[in-house]
Specification:
By secondary structure, this protein is of the alpha/beta class. 41% of the residues lie in helices and 18% in strands. It is built from eleven helices and 14 strands. Helix 5 runs parallel beside helix 6. The structure holds galactose-uridine-5'-diphosphate. Pathway: Carbohydrate metabolism; galactose metabolism.
Length: 339
């Protein structure tokens, strides 16, 4: 299949294009490297033995996008590009709404003009907000996220639903990611956040490698087994394979549908730190801090729908996620900047 991937150089994007290249797909990447590195694409090409074709540009540049569609004639699109930092979205809501909605509008209009109506969209478990209890099911009713970043995903799910409703030729997968961590087993590609990481796994990995002094544990008085927050961490390669399963499903199904991509298992902050201690063979200093505003005690997926309809399930456990993340972090202490 000829697949155009926006944000293909990013963390989830790079692992997904690798999976596509390895199964023989023709991959076209559109990326402006706002939060990623071109080195990731070189590494992917090295592993796969073939390269994606790159168009370095903003997805919101509809004229340029039009030219790319005319030249490349993609059959399907996977749309990863977008801003994704929760705290930043609270501080700069306008930027988040304008960027995440604007790029997607430009993409959808261009797809429509070129008769490309197969789309896999990066959504997030954040669409479940804080008024539902884990495990989250896709049919749980009204979606309402608790921050502007999450709201852009809720709104875009709405937009895509209306677009599919208006023209039954669309085939759209809304993939609601839980907490992707880990890295490709080669240790050559992985998560490389700019600045101090917001998320737990890259933070722990950077403490383990000595880039940061200690992990702050955001609260140990939640109503969970050990008092720390519980999340559904999913290996990024399992997540990448979930995208392929969705693309395959869309070959034979019109319309729009949402699927959770998680493992269905919850891991606490302290358990995740312990997994990285095992993987790295190093003690990881950590200290309990107050709760982070807006955090949930628990979030994990009901994975029944993806298992039944996509024939996909996450296969890799937390130990493997920590081992693979550690191979990446220890081999690339400064991320892609080391080159
Ligand atoms: N945590 C810490 N210390 C840290 C960072 C996180 O203790 O330095 C804890 C959090 O309190 C939480 C868990 O670790 O219990 C996971 O936190 P992350 O920030 O890694 O992940 P979240 O589940 O909070 O965030 C995820 C996505 C976001 C957004 C969000 C919606 O990463 O993009 O979708 O869910 O709630």
């Amino acid at each position: 299949m000829r697949v155009l991937v926006t944000g293909g150089a990013g963390y989830i994007g790079s692992h997904t294009i690798l999976t596509l290249l390895e199964r023989g797909d023709d991959v076209i990447v559109v990326d402006n490297f706002a939060n990623s590195s071109p080195v990731a694409l070189d590494r992917v090409a090295g592993i796969a033995g073939r390269s994606p074709r790159l168009h370095r540009m903003d997805v919101s540049d509809e004229t340029a996008l039009d030219a790319v569609f005319a030249a490349e004639k993609p059959e399907a699109v996977i749309h990863f590009a977008g801003l994704k930092a929760v705290g930043e979205s609270v501080a700069e809501p306008l930027r988040y709404y304008s960027e995440n909605l604007g790029t997607t509008f430009a993409l959808l209009s261009t797809m429509q003009r070129h008769d490309v109506r197969t789309l896999v969209f990066s959504s997030s478990a954040t669409v479940y907000g804080d008024h539902q209890n884990a495990p989250y099911r896709e049919d749980g009713g009204l979606l309402e996220a608790s921050n502007p970043y999450g709201q852009t995903k809720v709104m875009l799910e709405r937009v895509l639903t209306d677009v599919a409703q208006a023209d039954p030729r669309w085939r759209i997968a809304l993939l609601r990611y839980f907490n992707p961590i880990g890295a490709h087993e080669s240790g050559l590609i992985g998560e490389d956040p700019r600045g101090v990481p917001n998320n737990l796994a890259p933070y722990v990995a950077q403490v383990a490698v000595g880039r940061l002094p200690e992990v702050g544990v955001f609260g140990d008085d939640y109503a969970t087994a050990d008092g720390t927050g519980e999340r559904d961490y999913i290996h990024v390669v399992d997540l990448a394979e979930g995208h392929v399963a969705a693309l395959e499903h869309l070959r034979t199904h019109e319309g729009i549908r949402a699927w959770n991509l998680g493992t269905g298992r919850a891991t606490s902050v302290l358990e995740l730190i312990a997994a990285f201690e095992n993987a790295s063979g190093r003690p990881i200093p950590h200290r309990v801090l107050p709760r982070r505003e807006g955090d949930l005690a628990q979030a994990w997926a009901d994975t029944t729908r993806a298992e039944q309809e996509l024939g996909w399930r996450a296969r890799r456990g937390v130990a493997e996620m920590a081992e693979d993340a550690w191979r990446w972090q220890s081999g690339n202490p400064q991320g892609y900047d080391t080159e």
